[in-house]
Automatic annotation (TrEMBL):
It comes from the Bacteria. The keyword Transmembrane helix applies. The keyword Acetylation does not apply. The lineage of its organism: Bacteria, Pseudomonadati, Pseudomonadota, Gammaproteobacteria, Lysobacterales. It comes from Lysobacter enzymogenes. Pfam families: Mpo1-like (PF06127). The chain crosses the membrane at residues 27-44, 50-69. Keywords: Membrane, Transmembrane, Transmembrane helix. This is Membrane protein. Signal peptide: none annotated.
Length: 101
Protein backbone atom coordinates (compact mmCIF):
# COMPACT_ATOMS: atom_id res chain seq x y z
CA UNK A 1 0.00 0.00 0.00
CA UNK A 2 1.20 3.49 -0.84
CA UNK A 3 2.42 5.68 1.99
CA UNK A 4 0.12 8.65 2.65
CA UNK A 5 1.41 12.14 3.31
CA UNK A 6 -0.64 15.00 4.68
CA UNK A 7 1.63 17.66 3.20
CA UNK A 8 4.94 18.26 1.46
CA UNK A 9 6.75 18.74 4.78
CA UNK A 10 5.90 15.11 5.64
CA UNK A 11 6.80 13.90 2.15
CA UNK A 12 10.22 15.53 1.72
CA UNK A 13 12.13 13.32 4.22
CA UNK A 14 10.72 10.28 2.38
CA UNK A 15 11.77 11.85 -0.92
CA UNK A 16 15.32 12.36 0.36
CA UNK A 17 15.46 8.75 1.58
CA UNK A 18 14.69 7.67 -1.98
CA UNK A 19 17.68 9.75 -3.16
CA UNK A 20 20.42 8.54 -0.84
CA UNK A 21 22.78 7.53 -3.66
CA UNK A 22 25.13 10.38 -4.55
CA UNK A 23 25.33 9.46 -8.25
CA UNK A 24 21.54 9.45 -8.46
CA UNK A 25 21.38 12.92 -6.87
CA UNK A 26 23.98 14.15 -9.34
CA UNK A 27 21.95 12.76 -12.25
CA UNK A 28 18.84 14.50 -10.90
CA UNK A 29 20.80 17.75 -10.65
CA UNK A 30 22.16 17.47 -14.21
CA UNK A 31 18.66 16.67 -15.49
CA UNK A 32 17.22 19.69 -13.70
CA UNK A 33 19.93 21.93 -15.17
CA UNK A 34 19.04 20.55 -18.59
CA UNK A 35 15.37 21.28 -17.99
CA UNK A 36 16.13 24.91 -17.11
CA UNK A 37 18.39 25.33 -20.15
CA UNK A 38 15.84 23.77 -22.53
CA UNK A 39 13.02 25.81 -21.01
CA UNK A 40 15.03 29.01 -21.53
CA UNK A 41 15.79 28.02 -25.12
CA UNK A 42 12.15 27.15 -25.81
CA UNK A 43 11.10 30.60 -24.63
CA UNK A 44 13.98 32.57 -26.18
CA UNK A 45 13.79 30.86 -29.56
CA UNK A 46 10.04 30.26 -29.68
CA UNK A 47 10.47 26.51 -30.12
CA UNK A 48 7.71 24.77 -28.15
CA UNK A 49 9.01 21.29 -29.04
CA UNK A 50 11.92 22.00 -26.68
CA UNK A 51 9.41 21.73 -23.82
CA UNK A 52 9.03 18.04 -24.68
CA UNK A 53 12.81 17.72 -24.80
CA UNK A 54 12.95 19.32 -21.33
CA UNK A 55 10.57 16.67 -19.97
CA UNK A 56 12.59 13.85 -21.53
CA UNK A 57 15.82 15.35 -20.18
CA UNK A 58 14.54 15.82 -16.64
CA UNK A 59 12.84 12.47 -16.27
CA UNK A 60 15.48 10.62 -18.30
CA UNK A 61 18.37 11.57 -16.04
CA UNK A 62 16.28 11.03 -12.89
CA UNK A 63 15.03 7.61 -13.94
CA UNK A 64 18.52 6.42 -14.87
CA UNK A 65 19.51 7.41 -11.34
CA UNK A 66 16.64 5.45 -9.82
CA UNK A 67 16.79 2.31 -11.92
CA UNK A 68 20.58 1.87 -12.11
CA UNK A 69 21.92 3.51 -8.95
CA UNK A 70 19.17 3.75 -6.33
CA UNK A 71 17.60 0.48 -7.51
CA UNK A 72 14.12 1.78 -6.65
CA UNK A 73 11.02 3.07 -8.39
CA UNK A 74 10.76 6.85 -8.73
CA UNK A 75 8.36 8.40 -6.22
CA UNK A 76 6.84 10.17 -9.25
CA UNK A 77 4.75 7.08 -9.96
CA UNK A 78 2.86 7.31 -6.66
CA UNK A 79 3.30 10.96 -5.65
CA UNK A 80 3.69 12.98 -8.88
CA UNK A 81 3.07 16.51 -7.54
CA UNK A 82 5.08 16.11 -4.35
CA UNK A 83 7.88 14.45 -6.33
CA UNK A 84 7.98 17.29 -8.83
CA UNK A 85 8.24 19.77 -5.96
CA UNK A 86 10.81 17.53 -4.25
CA UNK A 87 13.03 17.60 -7.33
CA UNK A 88 13.20 21.38 -7.25
CA UNK A 89 13.64 21.63 -3.48
CA UNK A 90 16.48 19.09 -3.67
CA UNK A 91 17.97 21.08 -6.58
CA UNK A 92 17.89 24.22 -4.41
CA UNK A 93 19.31 22.32 -1.43
CA UNK A 94 22.21 21.06 -3.57
CA UNK A 95 22.87 24.57 -4.92
CA UNK A 96 22.92 26.04 -1.42
CA UNK A 97 25.10 23.25 0.00
CA UNK A 98 22.43 21.85 2.31
CA UNK A 99 22.68 18.52 0.47
CA UNK A 100 26.02 17.15 -0.64
CA UNK A 101 26.57 17.06 -4.40
Amino acid sequence: MSQRFQNFREFYPFYLSEHSNRTSRRLHFVGSCGVLALLALAIAQGRPWLLLAALVCGYGFAWVGHFFFEKNRPATFKHPLYSFAGDWVMFKDILTGKIRF
